[in-house]
User: What shape does this take?
Amino acid sequence: MPRASRCFANITSLVLAAQAWKSPVHQCCVGQTLRIAMGPDNFSPYIFYNGVPMNGSQEPVESSYTGFIPDVLDELSKEMGFRYEYLTRPPAEMHHQSGTIAALTQMANRSYDAVGVFLDNPELSRHGDFVLSCPILSASNLALVGKKVQERGTWNVFRPFAIDTWLAVMGGLLGFLLITVAINAESKGLREASDLGTICSAYYHIWSALFGQDDNTWESFPMRLLRLGLLFFSLVVMSTYTASLASWLVMPDILIHGPKNMADLLGAHATYHDPSYAFTIEPFVGKLTLPEAGESLEAKLEWMLKLLKEGKVDVLITNDSPVTGLWLQNCADTQIVPSITFSPWYWAFALRSDEVGLKFARDITIAMSRFVSTSTYQALEARWLNRGKTCPSS
Assistant: This one.
């Protein structure tokens, strides 16, 4: 293809890509500003506060944020044409669920135009003076379990028995040899019975009997009783070894340690990162171990992963993004369980229920419905939420 044609094709593809961003509400809100109430905290990786410490201030201050939600909001503002600013409220007013309700009350008094809210907040149903956009973020809890990759090799023929079992078998055969020597000493004399050739011959016949191919003549009554005991010992050892070997040969290459579905999860020992939301996990697990409150999310995840790898818990549960991040960093010995996902939650904008707020909520919903199908949205999910990423061995 000529260079000019390739250049034209590239320009055409860029133009088409740019047009693909447009939605029915393209540049619908030019000249409008959305004042958004936020808290001075981090909710990794969804939102990070970049402002200065509040230092006891009781007045909202304009700040900046980064993360998945701010990036989505930035794309929406470009598409719809509105400006926005974050007004960070004091920590005391934005603490958890009660802070959201306080912000909604202030929004009704026109201090703000929008408040970011988690839709699982039960207090929202008691405060009806607002409208919601469609969710900007949706997530759920996922499960991470331990795994072990089976090694295949020639020496694995000995794998059906553990070392202590092999030692027990060898000890048993040695015991039969000592009994044989004792019987021979009684019938043939100690000198002949202790001869090295006689001992080696006896040991050979014991091993032959173990494999069912003995050609020895067991003449005396004590030797016949010994043979019966040896044959029974052989039956137990060989049948057990054969069954274990067959089980090992059909064993999958990857062994998953932990629950494999929601039914298994009910009897599992789990760990979860947020003690304040433990009530959302407890109905689904048999036992729950929680980290200390007040630790950073990174410290909690490291502690939880250590419990999982040490076998002190069966499963690690947290939001889908941190779970995927842990999995990607520990591909060799952890595995996400796709069939275990529960307690979905959503983040959306609450806006005043006046004409402006209703229009914003509708237009954001229309824009989001188009935006989620674009490659830009998928790139943001991959960057911040690890979605679409997987381990090579999975």
Summary: The first helix runs from residue 3 to 20. Residues 35 and 113 are 5 Å apart (CA to CA).
